[in-house]
């Protein structure tokens, strides 16, 4: 049988066979280090992975059984292309927890030797490069000196504008229909999203990488800060009017921001560079910003705030989870939580509650910043994800007030802390709002923005964040350790692939034979766990598989190499829908050489994101 151990193999012991990394997709030998071993050859199991693609079984059967459709049925109805208009809201979206750290969002970006063309629209559409619509017409960047919060206030008093192309967008979700009309409607919708022709790349904080003008500005700012520390300016700023003579006699005291003492080591340079970039490398303007930030931190009581107990009511609204592909910590802002009326009232019903929410948000941000690496080559920014699904929208007055208040604080006192700002599950009203404010934003600010419609949200996150680091509710594999799977953690890499429309993808995990003479394996007989020997060629293969949104058929089987053995059906092909469990976790005890086949059949007209990972565990009798 498939799960029996061959009798001719003597009992031995070895370190458990090393699982192939989930990123291996070819069928060659697994990536193991060669090492000469004088011991006699002994057989141990190892695995490799290969992926095959074929036509969808469902579609093939339909082509054989169903008569050819009428030609008219294949033509999309022109009336379904979204001709209706919707009225734009005059107010901005809720972003009270947005930690965009740009200085006034319309400050002109630093000049470069070869400045980019102004036509480079920098808001990203989360669509594959092969399907990107033509770039929008060139737009001139308007550089005014008002903050984003001020622009939001101005928009409140502006009369409703006529709907633009972006404003009439209707959001879409993954569906099982294959009608040509819906495909056309989805394509029209995606073309209305602002698209990306450039992306923000973080500048180096190493002094050797700075230009001469930037290095000169840094030295000038350091001199201004040194003079302020020596004269006790930062510590006496708020009290000098009461007793100036006494303040002059005080000795200079150490000044720290985010736990980093200014001018003590190279980490201080990274802090100063944030303020310089926020002020276009104008040293005097950056110094004024630093002075105001230090004063605000004292007035707001940041040091005391870190130890304050503000409760955990908002922990689902904003939370830190995982890292992106470049090592930035990821912060999720979930606006849909404010659909809970009780929570909304608790956060925004009056000025006192709004201030408490702001203090809670600043506390979370401060604690996150303290974990960053401010060394010149370290990660000193945060990846922001804003989920606008079921957001209360711009009509909530209390939320608008909290938004403006938070934005002003973040822009003035937390410069250059956003590595990327990704908006997912974006509704039409946000696209309309963005269209209105986009001309007032600098190229630098817009280059950090990524906008994704609901149907593209998971795919967009995977471009920047490994699937194993993305929370399960956003299409990934990461779960709370207390809730779920002890077999896998965020440290176990996953493989991501695309299942094309009308195709069947098969992942083959092959268990084959290797000898310890060529590879560095230890004889099985020498390895014990809890007093039990591991059996030769017996192992347990554990895997997780997910297709975002499902609407596919999934099956698994083990096919042994021996001709006289039978295939074992682990899971017969089953139609999986969006209502099923998002992740399937399975295991199989392998007693002989062979391969496990994981088959995903996509009969729909939409491509699907397939995620999987696996590991090999020793089997104990």
What are the main properties of this structure?
single chain; 621 residues; alpha+beta; Helicase, Ruva Protein, domain 3; Phosphatidylinositol Transfer Protein Sec14p; Jelly Rolls; five-stranded antiparallel β-sheet; 18 strands; 26% helix; elongated; disordered N terminus; transport; cell division; CRAL-TRIO domain-containing protein
Describe the overall structure.
Pfam families: CRAL_TRIO (PF00650), CRAL_TRIO_N (PF03765), GOLD_PATL1_C (PF25099). Residues 482-616 form the GOLD domain. Residues 1-12, 44-60, 160-187 have a biased composition (Low complexity). GO terms for molecular function: lipid binding. It is found in: Cytoplasm; Membrane. This protein starts with 42 loop residues before the first strand and ends with a strand. A 6-stranded mixed sheet has the order 2-9-8-7-6-5, with helices on both faces. By secondary structure, it is of the alpha+beta class. The chain is built from 15 helices and 18 strands. Mean pLDDT is 74; it is low at 1-44, 68-147, 157-182 and 514-536. Among the domains are: 203-233 and 256-300, Helicase, Ruva Protein, domain 3, CATH 1.10.8; 311-465, CRAL-TRIO lipid binding domain (Phosphatidylinositol Transfer Protein Sec14p), CATH 3.40.525.10; 488-517 and 533-618, Jelly Rolls (Sandwich), CATH 2.60.120. It has helices at 57-65, 148-156, 180-191, 212-230, 233-236, 244-249, 266-278, 283-300, 302-305, 341-348, 351-369, 397-413, 428-437, 443-446, 457-464, and strands at 43-55, 124-125, 256-257, 260-261, 318-323, 329-334, 382-387, 418-424, 449-451, 495-499, 503-515, 528-529, 532-547, 552-560, 568-576, 584-590, 594-602, 608-620.
